[in-house]
Fold this sequence. Notes:
This protein is of the alpha/beta class. The protein has a single domain, classed as Rossmann fold, CATH 3.40.50.720. The chain is built from 9 helices and 7 strands; from the N terminus they run E-H-E-H-E-H-E-H-E-H-E-H-H-H-E-H. It has a 7-stranded parallel β-sheet with strand order 3-2-1-4-5-6-7, sandwiched between helices. Strand 5, helix 5 and strand 6 form a beta-alpha-beta unit. The longest helix is centred in the middle third of the chain and has 29 residues. It is globular. The protein starts with 9 loop residues before the first strand and ends with a helix.
Amino acid sequence: MSKAEFEGKVALITAAAAGIGYAIAREWTRKGGTAVISDLAADALEAAASAIRSDGGRVHACLANVRHRADIEHAFAETQRFAGGLDALFNVAGTNMPKNVEEMDDDEWHAIMETNLTSVYRACHLAIPEMRRRGGGAIVNIASIAGILAENRCGAYSASKAGVVMLTKNMAMDFGRDNIRVNAICPGSTRTPRVENYWKRSPTGRSELVDLCAIKRSAEPEEIAAPAVFLASSGASYITGAILVVDGGLTAGFRVPTFDRY
Ligand SMILES: NC(=O)c1ccc[n+]([C@@H]2O[C@H](COP(=O)([O-])OP(=O)(O)OC[C@H]3O[C@@H](n4cnc5c(N)ncnc54)[C@H](O)[C@@H]3O)[C@@H](O)[C@H]2O)c1
């Protein structure tokens, strides 16, 4: 992928003020693409846009909470106004709340489902006709390894991310003939503000998670962004319906202590 790879191409990225979304916006603009970044955190969003601009990137910031349909519609209208179309959509926004089903109430359940899964449906619902009009496009959904392997006390999160995985495959089937490719990334433990917050609350949390990985460290957000942006590139022109696990080997297998002692 050269800098010219995304020249003239437009991406909308949700939750792009920090973490994985911000890293995707940086990667996309560094390779010549135009980015519309959206997030619900106004100050952080403006700071992210300024940082990308001072790096020479073409970016437009748009305040949007993906839980609200009107905000998603606004982000699409802004993308149209600023850049005249859409070639790639990165659905990044997600939230979690470690609680099991017995501990959770309806509002908490719906908040996770709306943020993680319904927002993907709503954004794709708007993106697909626009991409078809352009002759094709790429959608990359940020799911999670929790969508393929259950995480304790994360019933709603796991269910929502499994939903993202299956919706990705369904949309790949339904829109391949329109030259719209739909893929997902399942990150493992990635050093973003949310995860750093967990580590602050539970000082042993970081080493516990790192210990589960084959590569004994967490990912940097850029290590998730690079494969996500690759999936939207011409190098991935025959990849659709793929669920790419980027987890440092966390889900590669399980350790059998007996074999270590043999
Ligand atoms: N960090 C990890 O270890 C990890 C692992 C697996 C999957 N993921 C997934 O990756 C995605 C990004 O995670 P992250 O850790 O970079 O995020 P994060 O929690 O660090 O936050 C990134 C940004 O999301 C924004 N955001 C939160 N809710 C939003 C909403 N409703 N509307 C718009 N913006 C919103 C925040 O303001 C913030 O700027 C999520 O879908 C998450 O589930 C992350």
